[in-house]
Amino acid sequence: MRHQTRPNPNDYLKPLVDIGFNHFNKGEFDQARICFEKALQKIQEIGHTSISHDRLKFDLYLQISQTYYKQLKYNDAIEFCQKAENMARTFKHRLHIAQALESRGKIKVKQQLFHAALDDYNEALQLKIAVHGSKHIDVADSYHAIAEIHVLQHQYNHALTLQENGLKIRLNKMGRDHFLVAQSYYSIGYTYYHLQQYDKALKNYKNCLNIRLKKSDNDYLGLAETYNGLGETYFKLHDDESAISMYQKSLNLKVSVFGDYQIENSNLYYRLSVVYLRQKQFEEAFFAIQKCLKIKLEYDGNNHIDVAKCYNTIACIYTGQGLYHDSAMMFRKSLQIKLNIAGYDQFDIADSYHNCGNAYLKIEEYQQALLMYQKSLFILLQIAKNDSHRKHIADLYRVIAKVYSYQCKDAEAIVMLEKYCNIILSQHGECQKVAAIYKEIASKYEKLHQQNEASRMHQEALRIIKNFSDENDSPKSIALAQHAIGDPNYYKAFMKVLKDEKCRSDCTPIVFVGPENSGKTSIMKLFSRQELIPNLMPTQIIDNPGIMIDLNSYKIFDSDTCDIGRILDRKVVAAIESTKWGMIYQEDMKDSNHSKSSIAKTADDSRLNNEKIQASLITPNQLHEESIGNLKPYGDHDYLSNAYTKPVNLKHYLDIFNNYYEHSLVIESDVKTHGYNCGKLWDFGGNPMHWIAHQPFMSGNSIYILTYNIAQDINQIVQTTDIDPNKMTYLQTIEECITNIVGRHSNQNRIEPCDDDNSDYDNDGISNEYSLPVIILVASHGDCVQNIEEQRRLFEGFEQALLASLPQYEKHICSSSIIFNCDPHDTSPATISQRKQSCHHLQQIIQRFYNSLPLLKNFIPIRWQIMSNLILKSSNRSYHQVNSILVDKINKIMFVNEIKQLSIDCGLYQGDQDLHDMLKSLHNLGDILYFQDNQGEGIIITQIEWLSDIFRRLFTMGKNARKVIGRRFLINYAARFKGKIPQSYLDNILKKISITDKHKQIIYHLMEKFDMIYPMEKDENDNSDDLYYFAPFTVEPRISLGHINLARYHVSDWLYIGYDQNELSFIPTSVFISLLVACFKQWKNSKVELYYNCVKYYVKANQYSYYLIVKKAKRHIGLRYYCEKESNATKDNITKVIDETRPQDFVYSQLIAILKEKLPTINCNNCQFSIQCHCNEMVTLNGLDQRDYEAIECHYCHQIVRTHYLKDWTIYTRNSEVPQCYFFKISKHIGIDWTKLAAKLDANIDVDTIKVENQTVFDRALKLLNEWFNRNCSSNATQNLITALRDIDRYDILLKLGISGNKLDM
């Protein structure tokens, strides 16, 4: 029966039986059994017993059996089941007999006596049908119990029939929402899963889930079981995101019941690690498997198979991360445990040996790798039974041959290749793979100087190739094309380099930044050995002069005077040459005399004259005229047979090869053998408004040179050559620079500058440790301060003032003590010598940091370097010869798919992840601009200077427009005072640079992405066809808000939103501009007025309207609203509107969100509401209530500040209900379900863009919540969030957060 029947004894037995049940329910089975046995003894002492006593004895026998069953004493349990059955047969009660039979059947299942168990369950089923008929609910229970036994025997079709019969009965008797119906759906889903009918499994699991969610009754384990089933099914369907979501929900529920580190959770951690590993999310996979391992070690000890599986998974993670030494160690750990388990699966052990061999091969420990492979082969040869085993044996022969080749044991390699070939022949017949093996064997015979055998293998390969020749078979054609190349060894090396070889990234941007009129352009010209120009115009946005500097030799490479194409090619040429000579040496190392003569001959052959060079190069037209039959593939490195192979464009592939082959013969010898440490010079404009345009060009690998005018006081207003004076001081402008630079760099690792034994300076002002990014301080205008001691004093004073203002950035700032004389008219020998000395000093400081940059220490695949060279050279046709077809394929703007096709055509493609990593690397090196944008497609700018030119034209249009009258004057007025620019005007700017319509739309998209412009809605009175954009960067510094006649208005007190000095010293102008654009999006009104560091918005809410001023202070954003007294709105009306619409909360959340996006490394979570005291310091409002609103004590001057801010802004009544403070914890727990939450909160939120712009699930969820709140800021926001969490069934989050009422009580 389904439920344990409680005995109904006489009064004198009842207390004893109750005590027994209490012990049983507590898990005290021995004590329970003693009570039940005493009750049996008392019944026997009575002598004559009634039917009720017999039934009580039956129940007691079964209960005693249950105590033994719980203690895993199955034989004793069966003995008492048999007694119960005998007792039931005595009083001939068929249902009692059935109950005893089912109890015994359950025990036999535990003993894996499945046939005997089925006999008992089937007999019980027949007894139930005889009593109740075939439609009774107890019959359904029997169907499911029997089905479970069939499942254990893998007889899933039998099980499915019984389960469906049981479901029909339960639906008929209990309705659709009963928990037993849910259990039926779960069982059927489980069976369909094992039948590999995953769609049907999902359907039944979801039916089960819907019922359990309605009838949960705290059945968290039932829900967890269902989520786990869904996760397993999604995993099989390769829907990894859904699988992770389901596993995480199941895990969260189990953690809430059992706690974190419990054995019940270990399997879920394991499953999560596996799916994360499949997604190549290695950090998440490692976190999950570490938790699983900790649990398994605690509960199962060191020698359990589950522990071995954990080590194996960790090894796979290390392999994915390229940590092959660690991977080998973990594989060995896993293998050792499996060897210690008696009778363990030999095939799995063989697989473990194979894995160990792969790991040792990666770290070039060939003897260890060979030993592992041989042990794996030995096991497989003993147990081989099917094609799968033979395939593994073939793979082992192949990889063992490769190891022998690495060890220069060609005879042994031939034996293995022949065995490998025999298996391929038996499975596939004579195919192209067999031909390739014959060619490889032939190459081995050639190394052994067995020419007859080599010729025989070549002829066999030729015969097969001719039978399978197909001109569209690009990989075959390329693999066999080397006969047409003048130097076959070079071609072999070229193929190997494309697949395996790596090189160091040895070029980084060197960016000159600083205030306007600080001499940075002059210093950059001196540093790059150019002449100073009197009355230099200030840099507009960005200037890329096309200059690279070799920091080793201080050699200058200028694109106007030298062929940078050859310099870019040098690493590739050097890698191919090195590989070629290494291959030649390995081939002939057994015969040193032959090796010497061979190398000498090859060296002579490589110095051919130009005529012979051209004769040796293959042309695309010649390729198809040649006979394919005589071609030889490159033995061990079958580059074109990897998993990512796509149809390659043979012409492009050979064009690239010919380019490097020609260079190897004519390029300078020092380029072949010596590398450069190059820096690419950039000049960033000093106007603070320009930083909004600097964002796309900032790389994660730059070294920054911060210049300032030593002749100017640091607190003095910056002097500019422009008619619009900058109202910021030198210190504020430098704070702007440093905050933008440091805040935007995600990598802030500590580095130790490399020592330079060749340095001419005992102490470069460099300490032992810095944080990335490094900013080197350099002074200009040394000619204005003649006294050397005074120069040093001023430099030290500036440095001290800067560090006092920005103490948190001390580890980023390097003081060089270098002071340049920038007077272009001073050409005296002493000045020239001083400039050379300063430049040399700066070069040595940069070199020390350059050699410490982590990105430059990492090695990148050579194919990335080839793609970079191709893009850079093709984007400028003045570079060295580049095939015109390739030039036409590379545009100024490209999408990822276009770059992908190009890499496929050129034979450089190794998978989408490799392509993405390449583009990120080239972006960080400053070679391209890569934006993961445009609905995930990705945008690449191949000509960076071209984009910077567009931005320059855009940012300078206001000044140009002031020089004319008419419509341009009106445009200029609208731009300067309202930030309003017509699209036709922008189109005209873009038209001047001959841009296509497709590229124009991308430029508009990028400008919107970086908050330079945003489309405006038309005014009601605007009948023109022109569209307008809001562009806050057009404001002029001299335009101030001025004084407002407060007598005419209902005016609020100023409210400030910002940070303490220790958290954020300065809110950059770029952040403020993005905030203004966000406010414009929110309030959607074109009646906006721009002023210096201030904007006035016209806001409509309900039937009322008011003006809202948003201004920037140093590290705060100020808010103030007002409306005319003559309007229909009273002060109370507007205060009520403010209370309902909460603009202060919107600005609060937007400021945090923008800082997280623009300056991700700055901790911006502790944003606070403040007011300004008479002493100009900010007084924080946190923790105040309504009683404090009239008088607040300033923490600095201790004066009482009287204000109406709480009445005006109602901070105390709403702040605790603003849900932003909960976003962090929700984002931490929501997992992959953040997309479902987005659909419930606001279906208009662009989830795809959030995915592209944020890499982790946590960041995506946090971005979603902030964007939702920004769009839907209201008093009901918290309740709406709770409702959405309930709608997506995240009860585990609600349980974890402890929700009560309408608030998230955390």
TrEMBL record:
Among InterPro entries, the record links this protein to: COR-A (IPR032171), DEATH-like_dom_sf (IPR011029), Death_dom (IPR000488), P-loop_NTPase (IPR027417), TPR-like_helical_dom_sf (IPR011990), TPR_rpt (IPR019734)
Q: Which UniProt keywords apply?
A: Repeat, TPR repeat
Keyword presence, Transcription:
no
Identify the PROSITE patterns for this entry: DEATH_DOMAIN (PS50017), TPR (PS50005)
Kindly indicate whether the keyword Chaperone belongs to this entry.
Answer: no
Boundaries of every Death domain copy: 1226-1297
The alphabetized list of GO BP terms reads:
signal transduction
One family from Pfam that matches here is COR-A
Q: Give start and end residues of every TPR repeat.
A: 182-215, 224-257, 266-299, 350-383
CDD domains reported for this sequence = Death
Q: Which domain of life is it from?
A: Eukaryota
Its name, as the record gives it, is: Death domain-containing protein
